[in-house]
């Protein structure tokens, strides 16, 4: 999928929702379709930080909880399937890359970094969305929650993504917006860069990432600083 053969630079692995792309509007509008159908008060996009960021199942559960409705497991399972069906047709209506993403990918690629995506979005939707946004071919691997038997915060989701990208799982950097991303990197023994503009309901400054950035203009320097001697404890 990637366009170049890379050198021994660290693999840079990105979360998707709230990190590479501002997906909240399309995610929440899809969830609200289900909530209207179920007679539950809808969630405004401004509440994205309260519901988005841990995958569709958790988002549905959180959204319905805000509307005063607890979901039994079988009901959540049915709503999850309906969510995936609707979202597949509406995943790039309002979604856009965050400012500076393209330029940052260009700089990282030119410097010899492998690029990958590790997200709790399903793989099919992740690939389709990144294609719609015109950047799928930038990534050597695009791995979702169903790509392996493990998903974030299990560190194997991250390390297996790096392996699929052709990188060394001991030499990688995670870029994300939430506790899930930072915890995943920590569990893998890898450094984490956190963006401040994502969907976490806890400020990333309280989550202990190695570097915090407010704009993608700062990512290249952050990666360069972390890449020097990056090695995890993964065997």
Automatic annotation (TrEMBL):
Instruction: Return the Gene3D superfamilies for the record.
Output: HAD superfamily/HAD-like, Putative phosphatase, domain 2
Q: Which GO terms describe its molecular function?
A: metal ion binding; phosphoglycolate phosphatase activity
Task: Give me the reactions it catalyses.
Answer: 2-phosphoglycolate + H2O = glycolate + phosphate
Pathways per UniProt: Organic acid metabolism; glycolate biosynthesis; glycolate from 2-phosphoglycolate: step 1/1
Enzyme Commission number(s)? 3.1.3.18
List, alphabetically, the Pfam families matched: HAD_2
One example of a Gene Ontology biological process annotation? carbohydrate metabolic process
- Summarize where Mg(2+) binds, as residue positions: 15, 17, 177
Name any cofactors this protein relies on: Mg(2+)
Supply the InterPro entries for this chain: HAD-like_hydrolase_sf (IPR050155), HAD-like_sf (IPR036412), HAD-SF_hydro_IA (IPR006439), HAD_2 (IPR041492), HAD_sf (IPR023214), PGP-like_dom2 (IPR023198), PGPase_prok (IPR037512)
Q: List GO terms (cellular component aspect).
A: cytosol
Residues at the catalytic site: 15 (nucleophile)
Q: Which keywords accompany this UniProt record? A: Carbohydrate metabolism, Hydrolase, Magnesium, Metal-binding
General function of this protein? Specifically catalyzes the dephosphorylation of 2-phosphoglycolate. Is involved in the dissimilation of the intracellular 2-phosphoglycolate formed during the DNA repair of 3'-phosphoglycolate ends, a major class of DNA lesions induced by oxidative stress.
State the family named in the UniProt similarity comment for this chain.
Belongs to the HAD-like hydrolase superfamily. CbbY/CbbZ/Gph/YieH family.
Protein name as catalogued: Phosphoglycolate phosphatase
Q: Which gene encodes it?
A: gph
């Amino acid at each position: 999928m990637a366009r170049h053969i890379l050198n021994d630079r660290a693999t840079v692995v990105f979360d998707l929702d709230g990190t590479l792309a501002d997906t909240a509007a399309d995610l929440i509008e899809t969830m609200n379709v289900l909530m209207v159908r179920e007679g539950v008060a809808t969630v405004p996009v401004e509440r994205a930080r309260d519901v988005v960021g841990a995958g569709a199942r958790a988002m549905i559960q959180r959204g319905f909880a805000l509307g005063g409705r607890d979901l039994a497991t079988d009901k959540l399972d049915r709503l999850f399937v309906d969510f995936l069906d609707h979202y597949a047709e509406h995943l790039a209506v309002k979604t856009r890359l965050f400012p500076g993403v393209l330029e940052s990918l260009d700089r990282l690629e030119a410097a010899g970094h492998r690029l990958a995506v590790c997200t709790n979005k399903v793989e099919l939707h992740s690939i389709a969305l990144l294609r719609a946004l015109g950047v799928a071919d930038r990534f050597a691997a695009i791995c979702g929650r169903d790509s392996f038997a493990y998903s974030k915060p299990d560190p194997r989701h991250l390390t297996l993504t790096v392996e699929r990208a052709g990188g060394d799982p001991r030499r990688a950097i995670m870029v994300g917006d939430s506790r899930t991303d930072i915890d995943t990197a920590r569990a893998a023994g890898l450094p984490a860069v956190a963006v401040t503009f994502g969907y976490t309901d806890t400020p990333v400054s309280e989550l202990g990432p190695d570097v915090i950035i407010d704009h993608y203009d700062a990512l290249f320097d952050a990666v360069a600083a972390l890449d020097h001697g990056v090695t995890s404890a993964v065997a």
